[in-house]
Design a protein that fits this description.
With 264 residues, the protein is an alpha/beta fold. It has a single domain, classed as Alpha/Beta hydrolase fold, catalytic domain (Rossmann fold), CATH 3.40.50. The protein has eleven helices and eight strands. It has an eight-stranded mixed β-sheet, with helices on both faces. Helix 2 packs across helix 3 and helix 4 runs antiparallel to helix 8. The longest helix has 14 residues. The chain is globular and about 45 Å long. 44% of the residues are buried. The model has no long low-confidence stretch (mean pLDDT 96).
Length: 264
């Protein structure tokens, strides 16, 4: 684990160098920290060095007041890669991390070999819905969202059969600073890449959850239709498909990055 000041803002990251020739960077969901990718490491480490970071305002990265933007988060990714002297990587982002991946693919495709966009959309939710969530956190804190977040992030079956794992993820969510959560709600609220997806030139894999009520399979199919060199495949999961279907998710990522046939 390490911290780095990017434009005087602390960014918390973990760079696991497994002496591989290639590196993948993982970017996660609103309200999660880099531990959400723990189950992927044993799979990805076979072929890749793994770089994870806490998005600004989340985890152990600096808490920002006011509002943030997806562009700022994308620039943080580029600055971190520059600081670590990694010229080109593979990128995997889920939910808000998927929005960051879209921005990077549109504006800085030269830094990325391939991009995975999981459980995300070109436009997530509505402005009104995000404003309602901001008001709820302002009045009651992040903890007030725990139960509804559990329902959004995991299927009923997974919550029942993996209760301890779900609780660990939700405990991390509940510790999120209200200011950081609100700042990132604004970032997701304002992100809309529907008119720009055609400008992503790198190969893209879109992963969706068949039971995802936040970003649907229709959202994923729209991404795949608009991005020129893309494929879409679904897993039987809710929003955090990398947690709920850890092995299948990880194998899909490796198949795509290694130019193998995709199969679930």
């Amino acid at each position: 684990m390490a911290n780095l000041k990017l434009l005087n803002t602390k960014i918390h990251f973990q760079y696991e160098h497994f002496s591989r020739a290639r590196t993948i960077i993982l970017s996660g969901s609103l309200g999660a920290d880099l531990s959400m990718w723990d189950d992927q490491i044993k799979w990805l480490s076979k072929d890749f060095n793994v770089l994870r970071m806490d998005i600004k305002g989340l985890g152990l990265s600096a808490v920002e007041k006011g509002e943030l933007s997806i562009a700022e988060h994308g620039q943080d990714v580029l600055r971190l890669l520059d600081a670590l002297e990694i010229p080109k990587v593979y990128f995997c982002g889920l939910s808000m991390g998927g929005l960051i991946g879209q921005w990077l693919g549109i504006h800085h495709p030269e830094r990325f070999e391939k991009i995975i966009l999981s459980n995300t959309a070109a436009k997530i939710g509505t402005d009104e819905g995000w404003q309602d969530r901001i008001r709820q956190v302002e009045s009651s804190g992040v903890a007030a969202l725990r139960n509804t977040t559990a329902e959004r992030w995991f299927t009923t079956d997974f919550r029942q059969t993996h209760a301890e794992q779900v609780d660990r993820v939700l405990d991390t969510f509940q510790k999120t600073a209200a200011a950081g959560y609100i700042a990132n709600c604004a970032a997701v609220r304002d992100a809309d890449f529907r008119d720009s997806l055609k400008n992503i030139p790198v190969p893209v894999l879109v992963i969706s959850g068949l039971q995802d009520q936040v970003t649907s399979t229709a959202d994923a199919e729209y991404l795949a239709q608009q991005i020129p060199h893309s494929k879409h495949i679904s897993l039987n999961a809710a929003h955090l498909s990398n947690v709920e279907c850890a092995e299948a998710f990880s194998k899909l990522v490796l198949q795509f990055l290694n130019d193998q046939e995709l199969s679930v």
